[in-house]
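tmp note - Caleosin related protein-domain-containing protein
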Amino acid sequence: MATHDSMAPNSASGASSPTAHGDDALTFDTTAARCRQTSQRRQATDADAFIPKPAIARANLAVSTAAPDGSPESRGQRMRQHTVLQQHVLFWDRDGDGQIYPWDTYVGFRDLGFNVLFSLLATVVINGNFSYPTRLAVSWWPDPLFRVYVGGIHKAKHGSDSGTYDKEGRFLPQMFEDMFSKWDVHRSGSLSGRELWHMIKGNRLAADPFGWGAAIFEFGTTWLLLQKDGRVSKEDLRQTYDGTIFWKIKEAREHGKGWDKGFWPSDLVALGQRRWKAHDK
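out:
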């Protein structure tokens, strides 16, 4: 259950680093000597230098130190009527009726460039698992059509996640900044697949296999969609939370040169070729 500690920065004393994390302005400890994870997984203690009151959740804006005003697309009147978690799924609600049918899920994943099998899998996982929780916002009876309800999407929040969405679907800037402060080992402003995996393990709660599986599926899909040179950038991940990245990917694939990020079958072939050549040597 423990996270692989070699991936996190080490501290012999267990004290915080004032230079890297702004702890010199704090009047309380952020680490404890008897819990080494507190010194290995540092909080973003300087987030308030860029974001006003970062511990207060934003209802309709996903903000970061690099984008303290959020995405321009989220500041329109229609988008401001939705929480950030609702904005995250609006890409799949094309007709705006507040209901995401299994077919909507499938079409959305196809528009993002996923193949038929993965899109079918995503449809089964998402609509199969999240239809009833979101349906509870309107009825106790399960939906025979397995629709996901945008108005009840906050009820689909699960355990063992990053905590960036709160229980009402708002966006917590502090938790988003902590994600990179804790797990971006090389301070590159991005997360590798390995770092995402260690983050998933570090966030696991006891007796929560559903939450573990959901986190693996969500962040695994995110890596497949957004990675560039093996890493997911902080800005791309921020735009994933408010859903604006999905529309950009769709537009890029329909016009111009297409979406130039993600892990595609051609990358798998290239990876196999590199390993084959390395084995021959």
